[in-house]
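Example record

One chain of 235 residues, shown exactly as stored in the release files.
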Amino acid sequence: MYRDVLGLDEKRTVMKSYPSPFPKSNKLNLIVEGAPTRYSHRNFDEYKKIGEMVDKAHASKGKTAAFFPSYNVLSSVLPFIKTSPKFVQNERMPPRELHKLAKDFSSQGGMLIGVQGGSLSEGLDYSNGEIKTAVVVGIALEEMSLEVKSLIDYYQEKFGKGWEYAYIYPAVTRALQAAGRAIRKDEDKAAIIYLDERFNWQNYRKLFPTDERFVVVNQDEMERYLSAFWDGKSL
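Predicted structure tokens for this chain:
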């Protein structure tokens, strides 16, 4: 994608992929089925269900960061998240407040709550192993605006991959960036939870790291896998 978008000459470009340098045993990747994050499924009961699942993810071990697909979904689910304390990113929060939010989370624990593609999920580094569980809530797909539609049409005409380059790839990149906040050095150990069964769909899953194991579970199995992971057991 990046070679095409940047206009690099295919014959003069070498593409390589590199595995993560961190120990595989220090990371648990779970894709949870039954999380109702799609737009057509959003209502009071479903927001409550998401909140309960986020709380259960936090109950496993240490501090948790939850990253939502949008501020709208975040604000709808927030009342149902019972974990305390909560450190919540607001829309248009200035950098100074964002840094204070992250600092308070690091010192006090609880749950850090932000959006995929935002400063908390991409711009700040958590180098002291603060995040033990990272929850990626849903897929941060762009709203189908005129600009997005035009970009899809442009990439489709130029590369034959309009939906991939303009819609799917950026969303998965945001999810992986958010998930990557948890492990920043060799000794870090963390669980990554993707709350959306669409992450297991082929058009999304093919963009995930091929050198890592991703386990598809339901809500009950999620708790069992988390407990086993933190107890040093394998399932």
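Notes: DSSP finds nine helices and seven strands in the chain.
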